[in-house]
């Protein structure tokens, strides 16, 4: 395959960025999108140019590192639009020979571009630190079946826990809102008995931190849900709203 | 800020304020639309209804007291709604300072994307609407008679080459989009939505948007096509 690439190049956080054109030939349609970028970088290095910086780690779709907006869609889109996957799981067979592909970083005030296609997502870490944990006694682990948990609740928790924190929801949201991420993290702990103790303090703290980081508000467009590679549902945002309203009635203030 | 006082400062709290004030306005619009339909029962009954709004709750309440309580609720609601919308909108713009060269929308519909613009358009229409039918500002209404609302409706819509009627209908298109997204959205914001009810709530949103706007639209259309005179 022959491709025309338009890639966002930005030397540093302070520097001005711009889209730069690259031509790439001999791309196998069985290669993944990241392998295609590896090929480009090999050529750039051979020519003595600066390679394109992009985030990646497991390349199995489970770590949440890869983060590219491809042709205007966070993580790109497969040709059949069957299922949203992470960039590393997107293959070049979804593109056609001679196609022009625009590659940009996540764009959000809370995710400043560090270099080229790499953004700083530590805002997510600080949201987790604000309440994305449960407090347990140390010592030997409790028996897994010591606390009975209804199957339905366990399923909801697992669905929410599928979030890999890649930030595609923020990237896709026209408001740069992190509600899908935050709500998934609140839900996967809050529905279980182990997380129930800190349920309302957690939602108040995590929402306060989310707002402090400069993420926007939710206007219920569903763009986040549409790009999420882990199928995190808008239901969780409704649940987060419900918990925050409930916490307000309980008079809980943020402690972060 | 402590407890519940912290709530309106959060992005979610502001949305809840919008949802609740939105419910107040859906209720007001439904009642207003129902009242407007009385125009079909003739001048006498329609004018009696308009006067009835002022003597509501008599003899316990004085003249227009109940009406003013309702008006204050509606005014406070729209002020709160707009305050929350404008502060959130400003925040949302700041949260996404750099634009994408290419950005594809996958799920957001037209109604969702134009909420803020539609809302601003509706606000200006409300001001115009008050000048037209409540205050009867000379030049906006050709022959306003405070004691004859029926005449005001007919004359107001049939004057100036039907321009006021057309403005009214255009405003209703904005209102329909606003109500469609708003009605579904308020359930999501208040945490009362999930996938089980999603379809039904979208149906309800369609119903609210269509019933209210079509009900309002029959009056100017009736005047334009000579059904009302």
Overview of the molecule:
The complex is a heterodimer of chains A (256) and B (229). Chain A has helices spanning 33-46, 122-129, 151-161, 168-172, 179-190, 193-196, 199-212, 223-227, 235-249, and strands at 3-9, 18-24, 69-70, 73-74, 100-104, 113-115, 118-119. Chain A has 256 residues and is α+β, with helices and mostly antiparallel strands. Chain A has 2 domains: 3-104, Ubiquitin-like (UB roll); 121-249, Fumarate Reductase Iron-sulfur Protein, Chain B, domain 2 (Orthogonal Bundle). In chain A, a hairpin with a 2-residue loop joins strand 3 (69-70) and strand 4. Chain A is elongated and about 60 Å long. Chain A starts with a strand and ends in a 7-residue tail after the last helix. The model of chain A has no long low-confidence stretch (mean pLDDT 95). Chain B is an all-alpha fold. Chain B has one domain (7-91, 108-224): Fumarate reductase/succinate dehydrogenase, transmembrane subunit (3 helical TM bundles of succinate and fumarate reductases), CATH 1.20.1300. In chain B, 72% of the residues lie in helices and 0% in strands. Chain B has 9 helices and no strands. The longest helix of chain B has 31 residues, at 65-95. In chain B, 30% of the residues are buried.
């Amino acid at each position: 395959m022959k491709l025309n690439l338009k890639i966002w190049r930005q030397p540093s956080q302070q520097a001005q960025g711009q889209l730069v054109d690259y031509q790439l030939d001999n791309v196998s349609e069985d290669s993944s999108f990241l392998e295609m970028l590896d090929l480009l970088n090999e050529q750039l290095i051979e020519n003595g140019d600066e390679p394109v910086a992009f985030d990646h780690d497991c390349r199995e779709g489970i770590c949440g590192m890869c983060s590219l907006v491809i042709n205007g869609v966070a993580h790109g889109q497969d040709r059949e639009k069957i299922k949203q996957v992470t960039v590393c799981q997107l293959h070049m067979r979804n593109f056609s020979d001679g196609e022009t592909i625009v590659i940009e970083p996540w764009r959000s005030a809370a995710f400043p571009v560090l270099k080229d296609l790499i953004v700083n997502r530590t805002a997510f870490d600080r949201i987790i630190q604000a309440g994305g944990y449960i407090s347990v006694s140390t010592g030997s682990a409790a028996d897994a079946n010591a606390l009975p948990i209804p199957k339905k609740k366990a399923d909801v928790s697992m669905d929410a826990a599928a979030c890999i924190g890649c930030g595609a929801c923020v990237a896709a949201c026209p408001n740069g809102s992190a509600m899908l991420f935050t709500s998934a993290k609140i839900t996967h702990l809050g529905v279980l008995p182990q997380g129930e103790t800190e349920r309302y303090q957690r939602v108040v703290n995590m929402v306060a931190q989310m707002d402090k980081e400069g993420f926007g508000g939710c206007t219920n467009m569903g763009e986040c849900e549409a790009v999420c590679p882990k199928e995190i549902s808008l239901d969780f945002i409704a649940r987060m709203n419900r918990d925050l309203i409930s916490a307000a009635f309980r008079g809980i203030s943020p402690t972060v | 800020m402590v407890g519940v006082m912290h709530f309106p400062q959060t992005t979610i709290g502001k949305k809840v304020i919008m949802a609740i004030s939105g419910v107040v306005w859906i209720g007001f619009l439904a009642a207003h639309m129902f009242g407007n339909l009385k125009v079909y029962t003739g001048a006498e009954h329609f004018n009696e209804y308009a006067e009835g709004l002022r003597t509501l709750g008599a003899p316990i309440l004085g003249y227009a007291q109940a009406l003013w309580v309702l008006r204050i609720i509606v005014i406070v609601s729209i002020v709160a709604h707009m305050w929350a919308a404008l502060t959130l909108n400003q925040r949302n713009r700041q949260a996404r300072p750099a634009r994408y060269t290419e950005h594809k929308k996958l799920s957001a519909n037209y109604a969702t994307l134009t909420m803020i613009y539609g809302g601003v358009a509706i606000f200006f229409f409300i001001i115009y609407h008050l000048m037209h039918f409540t205050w009867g500002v000379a030049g906006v209404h050709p022959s306003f008679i405070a004691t004859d609302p029926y005449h005001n409706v007919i004359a107001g819509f049939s004057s100036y080459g039907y321009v006021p009627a057309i403005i009214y209908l255009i405003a209703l298109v904005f209102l329909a989009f606003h109500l469609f997204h708003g009605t579904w959205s308020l359930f999501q914001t208040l945490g009362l939505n999930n996938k089980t009810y999603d379809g039904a709530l979208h149906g309800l949103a369609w119903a609210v948007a269509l019933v209210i706007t079509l009900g309002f639209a029959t009056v100017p259309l009736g005047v334009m096509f000579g059904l009302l005179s």
